[in-house]
Task: structure prediction
Amino acid sequence: MKFSDPRVLVLGGDTKKWTAKSRPIDQTFLTGIETWVYAFDGVYQPILQTMPRDLKNYDLIICNSNLGKELARSIYLAENRPEKLTWVTLIEGSASDYLTPNLAVLKLFANSDLVNCININSVSFFRNLTKTKVEYIGMPYPVDLISKLRIPYEKRKKEIFVCPLALTRINDVLIAKGIGLPYITYEQEISRKPKNLLLYIENRSIQKKYLLQKAKEYHRDESMSVRELLPISEFFRMNNSSYIWLNLDPRYTWGRFVLDAAVLQIPIITTKATGHASLLFPATCLEDEFQIDKAIELGKQLVNDFDFYKHVAEYPEDKLECYKSDRMIEKLLGALE
Result:
């Protein structure tokens, strides 16, 4: 099917409807499915708040394959959409989440015109899981906007940004300790809202900073700074001056931290699972999340060898064009022809 300036609706797990024009400030910072809204000058709508009648004014739907309560509604919408409306399911989360047999997932894929696989390592898996066309496309990335937030090498702090939350993974922290620089990590505060009641019960605490304190007590390292998790609008300005990023991610997902680091020209030590690392950071890309000694060795080399540091930081520069909106639109619409 050929498209010419399609009217696009993006469906996801957020709780509010918005348009590209109504939230222009977020365009600088959003790097998930929302970027398709800006790419097509479209509309974003929560899956659970959408009815079949809401789809009639669009040519193309891009829907996250949320495995939670949204899955049943996504299937219902896909089955009851207007006849000429094209449906693209975009994989949400890690491909390993889909290893568990799930008939609902198969049903959603079967009612799709295309499955947008966001991790190149998982293409073969999804192609064998469904008869629906599967292509590795991903999501647009605001390369030109984020690149404006780069910090010159000489103004960077000799510190490490540990990408996952402090209580999520220990491997990144072990590496930061081994490299020997001060390092920053984040943990979320627990807001006193009814939706967090179970969290309070599990943690046996009503303190907002309980998780931050728990992380500090667990790691017990004076070189570690545990900070409150920031909104996305603050994320880049707080971490764009770090000298090295660490993200030994075991997940087969979109790997946004790798893209962030590439555009900011900050070396990141990461894994092949992220998909982008082999292309953008081959010199600091590890086979898996357990190569702690190798990661520490690379981190120390980055600290002590500026020529190596500069090479790693600038290597991705001429490889980022494929992530920009116009190229992503071309890939997506080409896959639908």
User: Anything to note?
Assistant: The first strand starts at residue 8 and ends at 12. The mean pLDDT is 92.
